[in-house]
Design brief:
Blueprint (H helix, E strand, L loop, with lengths): L11 H11 L4 H8 L3 H8 L6 H11 L3 H5 L3 H13 L6 H8 L7 H25 L1
Helix pairs in contact: 2-3
Length: 133
């Protein structure tokens, strides 16, 4: 018995969706930039194939090339992130790695305690005002 195999087709709409999500962009933002509705973006992201002219517009708004969309894969992104994270070279790629390991220059516990004390003082003032009434 033979099984029918589908050719290895790429789903461009899903790739656009993943790139959009990685860029931190919502469908509404992409729709506004393209001058179409959010529903049209949803339909676009469900499409397996997209016209080249539309793909070029989407790529421009997302800040990537058409080839980047066509050749996108989650595996490649994870490899880039992994390689960047462990990179110890002195070029700009360490800037990305250091932003992943962001360490604030202030004591976060002190900031939380300070905020709590200000909130507590504010609540005490409210209680005093209510007692006077």
């Amino acid at each position: 018995m033979e099984t029918a195999q589908k050719p290895n087709r790429t789903h461009i709409g899903r790739k656009i969706s993943r790139i959009r999500e990685l860029r931190g962009m919502k469908q509404e933002s992409l729709a506004k930039a393209l001058g179409i509705s959010q529903q049209a973006i949803s339909k676009l992201e469900q499409s397996e194939e997209i016209e080249d002219s539309t793909l070029e517009k989407v790529a421009k708004v997302l800040g990537v090339s058409v080839d980047a969309i066509k050749n996108y894969s989650d595996e490649a992104v994870f490899n880039i992130i992994s390689n960047t994270f462990h990179n110890t070279s002195s070029d700009n790629s360490t800037l990305i790695a250091s932003s992943l390991n962001y360490q604030p220059t202030f004591n976060t516990i002190e900031k939380i305690v300070d905020l709590y004390e200000r909130l507590l003082a504010s609540e005490r003032e409210k209680v005093e005002i209510l007692k006077k009434q």
